[in-house]
Design a protein that fits this description.
Layout lengths: L10 E6 L4 H10 L1 H4 L3 E4 L1 H11 L4 E2 L7 H10 L5 E5 L13 H9 L4 E2 L2 H9 L15 H5 L10
């Protein structure tokens, strides 16, 4: 996903369930200097909190339930994110619980690293790969995409 000339700058998606937003803000404040060196994308509420509390300026997408999750998904599918930090609430049902699931599926499909909590986010940003040119192995989904291609007979 990275150009061979692009060394350190990564494209990072940031998202958090409502009762994990404070944790995301605290984590971002702790890692402000590092995060400021990268291109950040966040859903509206998270982006606003990161701007106001931390001074970071992520690209602001719509609120998650209003399409921001899908916008992040499109960035993943188009190869425009290098990693996703998603502070997820695993113990309480969310009013829009199904919305983030496609994000996780797309990250798995396109081999994008995902951090679900502060510990995994710390490991991810501490990796030497964050500052290096890194091209993840992209899976070949051609057979899947071609299975129902127009003008190809269906196998019986």
């Amino acid at each position: 996903m990275q150009d061979s000339d692009s060394k350190a700058k990564k494209r990072i998606g940031l998202i958090a369930h409502d009762n994990r937003k404070r944790e995301l803000v605290d984590w971002a404040a702790y890692n402000r200097g590092l995060l400021a060196q990268h291109e950040l994308w966040a859903t509206e509420t998270s982006a606003t909190l990161l701007e106001e509390a931390v001074g970071l300026r992520p690209h602001k997408l719509k609120s998650g339930p209003l399409g921001g999750d899908q916008q992040l998904g499109a960035l993943l599918a188009d190869g425009k994110l290098d990693l996703l930090i998603f502070f997820w609430e695993p113990l309480q049902p969310q009013p829009h619980d199904p919305d983030p699931l496609p994000l996780l599926r797309l990250a798995a499909v396109w081999n994008i690293p995902v951090a679900f909590n502060r510990a995994s986010a710390d490991y991810m940003v501490a990796s030497p790969l964050l500052e290096a040119t890194y091209s993840p192995m992209l899976p070949d989904h051609t057979p899947y995409a071609d299975r129902l291609a127009p003008n190809k007979p269906l196998k019986q």
